[in-house]
Design the sequence.
């Protein structure tokens, strides 16, 4: 047994999509991390596939969107839904959204994609290592005793597969250690929510179905067949597929090829079973996202059914929210109480998205239109882009906002609206690693402040975000609006500094 002492600023437990994203976001802010993942390699399961537009915006901020889209190229044409009695007979069904399918280019600069988790995790891991993050696979976050120390930081023990033990001290710990989070359990943080909502099984298999689905390529294909009900999901669009069903979850493994052939509708098609993974859709949200120097993120903080494809996406947004706050506190630019706003902001959003995921039906013909209970169903686009924080690191101006439809008009606590700039960039591209001030064309007086990045926008802009041509929007490094000043105050720099002091506590 060997002991070293090593001192990163932030320790990350868990190297799934959320832990790896945390390492990348913190790296962008210049924060040294150590990430430990107990598995020897990234996930062999392709579970999550939908990388939504908000996550792609965040990957855009990291400068990795192109690499992710490249990894997703196999499924670039597989965005549609299909349904039928067998895969061979299935037809495409229209994709509908309650408010109609929008002109995406007016909402976001990003492109959503389907990239199976077993392809995306290696991309994030490779980039994290290339950017100098200390990423250690095959290493377990082992010792939870006394790792919270309010004055000095965290002391943790990690153990490599060969038994080597190392003690680490860090200022903060991010628990991105998954749904059964040992760290959350150790801290005794209870969870609430709708609980377990059923049972399902993912049958992951290989079969050459490329010819069969040509011209009818699909993201999901619902099989409406009493002998083999379920849905196929494309993993690579040619050889790798997942069949998900809630029927026969406990069926012996050797019976699945026959069920798959019935669902495919080709009796003699060769099938290689890769894995059979039973799982339980459910909603569990941690009651506290922060205890002392420990922050829960991703599935450790919120588990939700996959029907809104939001679990990993929400987790990646968690750590994007947390990264700039940790960086600001570690640089002594903000009071440590800023970190309390992580729970205040992300817990209600996590709960809401998990709840919305729970009331969605898995039926592709009525998905996004029918709720399984009386809770109003949010437009999926609003669920992805349109959340508003209730309280936190921003100054609320009492403006109205609706969560069920996309309503981004410059309200503090919402994401900055996307708008194309004359040079082709998006307003979102103006936000780097620090706060930025976006002012209208008559906002010259704001420029007296040399300490802040200030961008002047054209004359159509102010109206879009509820300010006069002399007004300003203060935007956080995570592209969330922190403060809105509708008109020019008598002393703009003084007002701005008062606002920043309030936000950074
Ligand atoms: C069928 C299905 C489809 C889905 N589809 C989507 C989708 O389309 N879009 C989407 O956003 N989400 C989707 N999800 C949800 C998504 O898979 C999860 O939300 C996401 O993977 C959670 O990521 P995570 O990093 O928080 O946790 P995990 O992926 O569980 O990673 C946690 C990691 O922590 C490690 N760990 C645990 N304890 C320790 C320890 N003591 N020391 C070191 N390491 C440790 C584990 O080994 C694990 O690798 C889907 C889920 C399912 C089941």
Sequence:
């Amino acid at each position: 047994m060997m002991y070293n002492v090593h001192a990163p600023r932030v320790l990350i437990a868990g190297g799934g999509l959320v832990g790896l994203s945390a390492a990348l976001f913190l790296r962008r802010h210049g924060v040294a991390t150590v990430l430990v993942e107990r598995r020897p390699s990234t996930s062999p399961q392709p579970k999550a596939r939908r990388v939504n537009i908000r996550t792609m915006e965040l990957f855009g901020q990291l400068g990795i969107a192109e690499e992710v889209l490249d990894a997703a190229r196999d499924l670039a044409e597989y965005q549609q839904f299909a349904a039928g009695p067998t895969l061979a007979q299935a037809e495409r069904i229209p994709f509908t959204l309650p408010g109609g399918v929008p002109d995406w280019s007016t909402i976001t600069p990003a492109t959503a994609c389907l990239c199976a988790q077993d392809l995306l995790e290696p991309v994030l891991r490779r980039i994290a290592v290339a950017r100098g993050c200390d990423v250690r696979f095959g290493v377990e976050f082992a010792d939870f005793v006394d790792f919270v120390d309010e004055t000095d930081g965290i002391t943790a023990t990690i153990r490599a597969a060969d038994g080597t033990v190392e003690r680490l001290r860090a200022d903060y710990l991010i628990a991105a250690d998954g749904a059964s989070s040992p760290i959350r359990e150790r801290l005794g943080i209870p969870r609430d929510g709708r609980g377990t909502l059923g049972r399902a099984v993912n049958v992951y298999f290989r079969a050459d179905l490329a010819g069969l689905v040509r011209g009818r390529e699909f993201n999901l294909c619902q099989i409406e067949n009493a002998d083999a009900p379920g849905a196929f999901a494309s993993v690579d669009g040619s050889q790798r597929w997942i069949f998900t069903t809630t029927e026969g979850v406990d069926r012996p493994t050797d019976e699945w090829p026959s069920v798959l052939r019935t669902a495919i509708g080709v009796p003699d098609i060769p099938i290689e079973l890769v894995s059979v993974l039973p799982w339980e859709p459910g909603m569990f949200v941690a009651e506290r996202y922060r205890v002392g120097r420990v922050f829960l993120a991703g599935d450790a903080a919120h588990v939700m059914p996959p029907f809104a494809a939001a679990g990993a996406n929400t987790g990646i947004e968690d750590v994007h929210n947390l990264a700039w706050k940790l960086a600001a506190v570690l640089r002594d630019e903000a009071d440590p109480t800023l970190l309390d706003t992580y729970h205040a902001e992300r817990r209600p959003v996590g709960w809401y998205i998990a709840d919305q995921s729970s009331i969605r039906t898995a039926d592709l013909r009525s998905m996004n239109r029918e709720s399984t209970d009386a809770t109003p169903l949010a437009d999926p686009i609003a669920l992805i882009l349109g959340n508003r924080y209730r309280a936190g690191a921003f100054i609320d101006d009492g403006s109205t906002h609706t969560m069920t439809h996309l309503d981004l008009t410059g309200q503090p606590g919402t994401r900055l609206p996307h708008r194309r700039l004359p040079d082709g960039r998006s307003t979102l591209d103006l936000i780097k690693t620090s706060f930025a001030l976006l002012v209208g064309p008559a906002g010259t007086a704001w420029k007296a402040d040399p300490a802040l990045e200030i961008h002047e926008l054209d004359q159509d802009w102010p109206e879009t975000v509820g300010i006069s041509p002399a007004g300003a929007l203060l935007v956080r490094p995570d592209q969330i609006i922190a403060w809105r000043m509708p008109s020019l105050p008598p002393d703009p720099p003084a007002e701005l500094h008062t606002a920043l002091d309030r936000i950074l506590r």
